[in-house]
Amino acid sequence: MEEILKWYEEFHKIPEIGWKEFKTTDKIASILDEQGVRYKRLPNMTGIVAEIGEGEEVIAVRADIDALWQEVDGVWKGNHSCGHDANIAMVLGSILHLKDKPLTKKIRYIFQPAEEIGEGALALLEQGVMDDVSHLFGIHLRPIEELPLGKVSASIQHGAHVSLIGKVEGVDAHAARPHQGQNALDVIVTLHQLLKTIYMDPSEACSVKLTKVMAGGESINIIPGTAEFAVDVRAQKNDVLSAIRKEVEHILDKLEVLFDLKIDWEWTSLTPAAEVSREAEEIAEDAIKALLGPEAFAPSIITPGGDDFHYYTIKKPQIKASMIGVGADLKPGLHHPNMNFDKSALNQGASVLAETLLRA
Predict the structure, then answer these.
(1) Are residues 111 and 29 in the same domain?
(2) Shared domain check, 240 and 171
């Protein structure tokens, strides 16, 4: 516990955003050197892949290493309110439990950059980190409304997410002569209302909404012809997300015709919903019950949050994967600038993860 907590505090002090996790990567490397664990740095990017054990089959575990960029007490800076510093510490902690045990398979530790921007997993897939992998596990602290301290879940059912970035290309006009322009705000207001007419099966958890609008300048007597906007789409299932995307595209096409102007847009930051393997989930469940007792086991966590961890199984469906959820009395919530949690959960998470990897 002392070693894991020390590592957590060290990573907490050096939060770095996606693709800029240079100090974090160096720190992971120095810890692996201290533990005598073989590893390689990823070429032309941050992140590390380490291995222990021998054998042809590979059991993999992934830790996300980037932080968020957010305003904390009036100052914009990197911040580990995502809990990735805890994830790194727990995954490194599992090495302490396993590195001296006789292993008949390799255990591959993937320290992945750029999870928060949804790019890291895809980039690492291109590096071959999932070659020969049969099972894949992740681990993440959960907010208190999902899991209290002492409870651990064998899987997290993340939802799917995608963002649309757009720009309305109208014509500026004097506020006294609106007929001479094309008011971008008319388009934005109409878009806002039409998004509310997208209906999916009420039993399916999903949402679609405007999350950004930028229009106009310093002068308030000019009708803005251009406006930038963003739309956030979320669903618990990948097929529902796809259906909503088609509805949004249909609305944008019709708005161009209705207002006789151009709307440029693109989809970005796609994060797929979880595809959890029942076999991997059962391995984690057995590990939790054996280590902490049946009373510590919690059912699968269903959450609207997303994680690019699930790209690994979308692109490699033969891999049996699950992400372990750890209760830590975490509050006010993930991504809150002042997020805090009970640090005793770190050793518990590391122990459960180690037992899960050993059983796999």
Answers:
(1) yes
(2) yes
